[in-house]
Write a structure and sequence with these properties.
The complex is a heterodimer.
Chain A lengths: L1 H15 L1 H20 L7 H10 L1 H9 L9 H30 L14 E7 L3 H11 L4 E5 L4 E6 L2 H26 L1 E8 L3 E4 L8 E4 L11 E12 L5 E12 L9 E6 L4 E3 L2 E17 L5 E5 L3 E2 L7 E7 L8 H7 E9 L2 E4 L2 E4 L8 E9 L16 H5 L3 E10 L3 E3 L5 E17 L3 H20 L3 E9 L9 E9 L7 H19 L1
Antiparallel strand pairs in A: 1-23, 2-3, 3-22, 4-6, 4-21, 5-7, 7-8, 8-9, 10-11, 11-12, 11-21, 13-14, 14-15, 15-18, 16-17, 18-19, 20-21, 22-23
Helix pairs in contact in A: 1-5, 2-5, 3-4, 5-7, 6-11, 7-10
Chain B lengths: L7 H31 L34 H31 L7 H22 L6 H17 L16 H34 L5 H4 L5 H33 L8 H20 L7 H24 L11
Helix pairs in contact in B: 1-2, 1-4, 2-3, 3-4, 3-5, 5-7, 5-9, 7-8, 8-9
Classes of the chains: A alpha+beta, B mainly alpha.
C-alpha cells in the first residue's frame, strides 16, 4: 500500500516538475510538425488521398498512425493532455504560494548587504530614524517592512509578475476548454446557391451540400434562419486579379420566418453575416450555365446548375447538366434510353485556339461553352453515387450512354441532335458558395486569449525585485552621531536589468539624505 | 475603393531604394568584417554589466559617446559600419514607405514586401540594442542573413506593386501583419544571438573549437542577454499577432483556428519560444539547451517566413507568390 502511494506520489511529482513540463512542451512542438508538413484530411481530403496513393506502404502506415489527421490523433492528444495535467499540478501549489505571499511581509533584511548583487554604502550626518523616514518616502509604491529597532527596511515590488503568470496559465487552460467546447457544440455547413433569388433555410442538415457536426450536434437544433441570395458581384482589375466580391442577400429570423418579411444584408469576403449565433460566409463563387432543351415533340425543359470553376484566374469551369426525365415517356426502359447529359467546359470570356475553348478573363464578358452531349442511361438508378459535375463513366464504357454531339456554343446559340432535339445555351447565372458556422464557445476563446496576452505581458515585463537598507549609527569619536547606510538589491527575475533602477533608487535616497542633512 | 491605382513612378523608386539598401548593408557588413578581422582578439571593450553597478548612473558606455582623439583604425572602421547600417536602415524604411505610397496601402501585402519589412525591423532592433549594449561585433553576423533574405526576396519573390487581393482587404492587415513583422524581425536577432552564443560557449569550453570566430565575439553573457531580452520583448507581441490572426481568420475564413499550415507553423514557433522561456527557468536547461531551443525557434520562424508559402499550399498562400 505504501509502495503504491509512493509510486503515485513520485509519478505526480515527476509529471508536475518543470523538467517534465518542458519536455512535454517540446514534444508538443515536434508533434505539430507533421500537421504542418503533411497534407491533412481536414484541410484537403483529395490531396491527402493522392499523397497516400503515391507513397504506397509508407503512406498507408502513416495514415494508420493518424499522421494525416495529426491534430485529432491519439499521440497528439496524449501530449497535450499530459501537458495540461502537468500544468494544473504546477499551478495549484503556485497559486497557494501566491496567495500566501500576497499577505506576507517582505523578507527580513539580510545580515550582510555587501553580498547582494547590488550594493552601496554611504555615510550621513542624519540620525537613523531620519534615514528611515527618508527611505520610506522614496519607497512609495513598494511593499515594505520597517524595523525601527534594527534600523532596517525591507522592500519588495513587482508582485504583478506572478499575477500575470498565473492569469496567463489559467487562461490557457480556459482556452483549451473553450476550444474543445466549440468543437463539441459547433457545426459548419456548406451550401451552393444560385444568385438569382434562391433560398436556403437552416432548418435541416439535408439542406446543406456538406455538413460537419460537433459531437453533441444531431442536427435537430440548428439556429433557425433563412437566406435569399439576390445578387453576386465580382470586380476585377484589368489583369484579372479580383478586387472585390460582394453578395446581396435577404434574411429572415425569429417571427419573420413564418411570414414574408425579409431583412437586407451585404455579405462579402471579410464581412460575414452574423445572425442568431451563426455566421454566414461568402466562400466562393462560380457560374451556372442555363441550357434549354426543346424535344422533338415541342416540349421544353430548362436547367441551370453550377459548373465547377477549375482555374481561379480565368474561371474556366467544367460540369454537367443532366436531363434525366425526357417528357412524354412513361416507360422506365425507354426513359433510360433517352436521358440527356450536357457536359463540357464553360468560359466566362471565351477565346478559341482553333476549335478549343479557353477562358482569358474571370468576368462574364463573352460567355461560351464547349459541350459534348450524351444520350442514353445516366445510371442514376445504378446505386453508385454520382457527382453533379460529371457523368458516370461506367455507363459510357458499357455503351449505355453515348456521345451524340459536340459543339462550341456562344450565348443564344443552339445545336440540333440527330433526332431533332434542340439544345440552346440560353443564359448564365452566378452562384455563391456559402458557409454557415456555429461556435457557441468562440467568444470565450477570445476572452481567454485576451487574458493570456495581458498575463504574459505583465509576466514578462515586470521584474520582481527586492531592496534593503540598514542604517547603523557609526562608531565613536569623529564619526559619532553619523549614520552608515547600507543598501542592497536583488532581482528575483532572470536577466532583469535591475542595476539601473537600483542605482536610481539609491541615488535618489542619497540626494534626499543630503537635502535633509543640509 | 482605396488602393486600386498604382503610382508606377513611386514603385520604381521604391525598387531602386530596395536595391541600394542591399548594397549599403553589404558595404556595412564588409566594414564590420574588417573591424573584426583587424581588431585584437577579445578587445578590452568596456562592457555594461549590470552587476556591481556604480551609484552614479551617468557613466556613459555607449559606443557613440563623445569622440576621443586616439581611436584605433578598426574602431573607426566599426563606427563607419554602424553609420552605414543606419543609412541602410533609413533607405530601407524609405523603400517601404515609397512602396506603400505607390500602392496606397500598407507595404506588406505580399511575401516580397513582408520579407523586406521583417528585415527592416531586424536592423532597427539591432541598432536599438547597439545603443545600450556592446554588440557592434555582431554586425556582420546580423547583416549576413538579412542580406541573404533580402536578396532572395528581391530576386525570386519580387512582386509588382499591386493592390491587395480581396481576402487581404481588412484593417486586420495593419494590426495582425505588423505585429507578425515586428515579432519575426526581432526574433531573427534573437536567433542570431543564440547561434553565436552556442559558438562562443563551445569555444569557452574548448578553446580550439570555433577559435577564429569565437575569440572575437562578445562575452557569452552579452549574447545570452541579447537573445533573452529580444525574446521576452517579442513573445507577448507574437502572442498578440497570433490572436489577431485568429480574430481575422474568424471573419475571413469562417473559423478562428483551422490548423492551416501557416497557422500550425506559427503555433509551433510559439511553443518553441514558450519552451525557451521555460528552459530559462529550469535548472540544468538554462544555458545551452535554452539556446538550442531558441535556434530551433529561429529556424521555424525563417521557415514560416516564406518557405511555407512555396512548399505547401494553404490559405495564406494568396500572399502573392508568383
Amino acid at each position: 500500500m505504501t509502495d503504491l502511494r509512493a509510486f503515485l506520489r513520485n509519478t505526480w511529482r515527476g509529471l508536475t516538475s518543470m523538467r517534465t513540463a518542458l519536455i512535454l512542451l517540446f514534444l508538443l512542438a515536434v508533434a505539430s510538425f507533421p500537421g504542418a508538413l503533411l497534407p491533412q484530411r481536414s484541410l484537403n481530403a483529395a490531396k491527402t488521398e493522392e499523397y497516400i496513393q503515391q507513397h504506397g506502404w509508407w503512406g498507408r502506415t502513416l495514415d494508420q498512425l493518424g499522421f494525416f489527421e495529426a491534430f485529432a490523433s491519439p499521440w497528439f492528444a496524449a501530449i497535450y493532455v499530459l501537458l495540461f495535467i502537468s500544468l494544473i499540478g504546477c499551478l495549484i501549489p503556485r497559486t497557494v504560494e501566491y496567495a500566501r505571499q500576497m499577505v506576507a511581509k517582505p523578507v527580513l533584511t539580510p545580515r550582510n548587504l555587501a553580498r547582494m548583487p547590488h550594493h552601496h554604502q554611504v555615510e550621513t550626518a542624519l540620525p537613523v530614524d531620519e534615514v528611515l523616514s527618508a527611505a520610506r518616502k522614496r519607497l512609495r509604491g513598494w511593499r515594505i517592512r520597517v524595523d525601527e529597532q534594527q534600523g532596517t527596511i525591507s522592500a519588495e515590488r513587482g508582485y504583478l509578475r506572478e499575477t500575470g503568470n498565473l492569469v496567463f496559465h489559467f487562461a490557457l487552460l480556459g482556452l483549451l476548454v473553450a476550444f474543445g467546447a466549440g468543437k463539441m457544440f459547433g457545426y459548419e455547413g456548406q451550401v451552393i446557391l444560385l444568385a438569382n433569388g434562391s433560398t436556403f433555410c437552416n432548418s435541416a442538415v439535408l439542406n446543406y451540400d456538406s455538413f460537419r457536426a460537433g459531437l453533441r450536434v444531431d442536427g435537430t437544433n440548428l439556429s433557425p434562419f433563412c437566406l435569399r441570395v439576390n445578387e453576386f458581384k465580382a470586380t476585377y482589375q484589368h489583369n484579372g486579379q479580383p478586387i472585390d466580391f460582394q453578395s446581396k442577400m435577404d434574411y429572415q429570423i425569429g417571427d419573420d420566418l413564418s411570414g414574408d418579411r425579409w431583412q437586407q444584408a451585404d455579405v462579402a469576403v471579410n464581412h460575414p453575416l452574423r445572425i442568431v449565433g451563426d455566421r454566414v460566409y461568402l466562400q466562393g463563387h462560380g457560374y451556372a450555365p442555363t441550357f434549354e432543351v426543346t424535344f422533338p415533340g415541342g416540349e421544353q425543359r430548362s436547367s441551370t446548375i453550377q459548373w465547377r470553376p477549375g482555374d481561379q484566374s480565368t474561371f474556366l469551369s467544367e460540369g454537367t447538366t443532366k436531363f434525366p426525365d425526357p417528357p412524354g415517356i412513361t416507360d422506365e426502359h425507354q426513359r433510360r434510353e433517352r436521358q440527356l447529359a450536357i457536359t463540357g467546359l464553360f468560359a466566362p470570356t471565351a477565346q478559341y485556339n482553333g476549335a478549343i475553348l479557353t477562358s482569358v478573363f474571370p468576368d462574364l464578358l463573352k460567355p461560351a461553352v464547349a459541350v459534348d452531349v450524351y444520350r442514353g442511361d445516366l445510371g442514376q438508378d445504378s446505386g453508385r453515387s454520382q457527382s453533379i459535375f460529371e457523368i458516370d463513366q461506367v455507363m459510357v464504357k458499357s455503351g449505355k450512354l453515348n456521345k451524340v454531339a459536340r459543339k462550341n456554343l456562344e450565348l443564344g446559340q443552339d445545336l440540333t441532335l440527330d433526332d431533332g432535339t434542340k439544345i440552346k445555351f440560353a443564359g448564365v447565372e452566378q452562384f455563391v458558395s456559402l458557409q454557415v458556422s456555429h461556435d457557441p464557445a468562440q467568444v470565450y476563446v477570445l476572452l481567454f486569449s485576451v487574458l493570456m496576452i495581458g498575463g504574459i505581458f505583465f509576466s514578462l515585463t515586470i521584474k520582481r525585485r527586492r531592496w534593503w537598507m540598514r542604517a547603523t549609527p557609526a562608531g565613536e569619536g569623529a564619526a559619532a552621531g553619523r549614520t552608515v547606510v547600507d543598501v542592497g538589491g536583488l532581482a528575483r527575475t532572470d536577466q532583469a536589468g535591475y542595476g539601473e533602477e537600483f542605482s536610481r533608487l539609491t541615488s535618489d535616497l542619497v540626494t534626499e539624505l543630503n537635502k535633509r542633512g543640509a | 475603393m482605396p488602393g486600386t491605382t498604382i503610382d508606377l513612378r513611386l514603385a520604381a523608386l521604391s525598387d531602386w531604394t530596395y536595391i541600394s539598401t542591399i548594397a549599403i548593408y553589404f558595404l556595412a557588413m564588409v566594414l564590420y568584417a574588417v573591424e573584426l578581422a583587424f581588431s585584437r582578439k577579445r578587445a578590452p571593450e568596456k562592457e555594461l554589466v549590470a552587476a556591481g553597478a556604480v551609484v552614479v548612473p551617468s557613466a556613459e558606455a555607449t559606443p557613440a559617446s563623445a569622440a576621443r582623439p586616439e581611436r584605433s583604425l578598426p574602431d573607426r572602421v566599426g563606427r563607419m559600419a554602424v553609420a552605414f547600417t543606419v543609412l541602410g536602415a533609413l533607405l530601407h524604411v524609405s523603400s517601404l514607405v515609397l512602396r506603400g505610397l505607390a500602392v496606397d496601402r500598407v507595404p506588406w501585402g505580399n511575401v516580397y514586401e513582408y520579407i523586406s519589412s521583417v528585415c527592416a525591423v531586424a536592423v532597427i532592433a539591432y541598432l536599438v540594442f547597439l545603443r545600450r549594449h556592446p554588440v557592434r561585433r555582431l554586425g556582420a553576423y546580423v547583416l549576413l542573413p538579412l542580406i541573404v533574405l533580402m536578396a532572395i526576396g528581391g530576386k525570386w519573390l519580387y512582386a509588382q506593386a499591386a493592390p491587395l487581393v480581396p481576402a487581404l482587404r481588412s484593417y486586420w492587415i495593419v494590426i495582425h501583419v505588423s505585429a507578425a513583422i515586428i515579432s519575426s524581425g526581432v526574433l531573427l536577432i534573437a536567433g542570431v544571438a543564440s547561434v553565436l552564443y552556442l559558438i562562443r560557449k563551445a569555444n569557452d569550453e574548448n578553446p580550439r573549437r570555433f577559435a577564429r570566430i569565437a575569440e572575437k565575439l562578445p562575452e557569452a553573457s552579452v549574447l545570452d542577454r541579447l537573445a533573452y531580452r529580444t525574446t521576452i520583448f517579442t513573445f507577448p507581441i507574437w502572442t498578440f499577432a497570433i490572436v489577431c490572426g485568429a480574430i481575422w481568420a474568424e471573419s475571413a475564413w469562417g473559423r478562428y483556428w483551422g490548423w492551416d499550415p501557416k497557422e500550425t507553423c506559427a503555433f509551433i514557433s510559439w511553443v518553441f519560444y514558450a519552451c525557451f522561456l521555460h528552459a530559462r527557468a529550469t535548472a540544468g536547461f538554462r544555458d545551452k539547451t535554452a539556446a538550442w531551443i531558441n535556434v530551433g525557434g529561429f529556424a521555424v520562424t525563417v521557415f514560416n517566413l516564406f518557405f511555407i508559402n512555396f512548399v505547401l499550399t494553404g490559405l495564406h498562400s494568396y500572399a502573392g507568390v508568383g
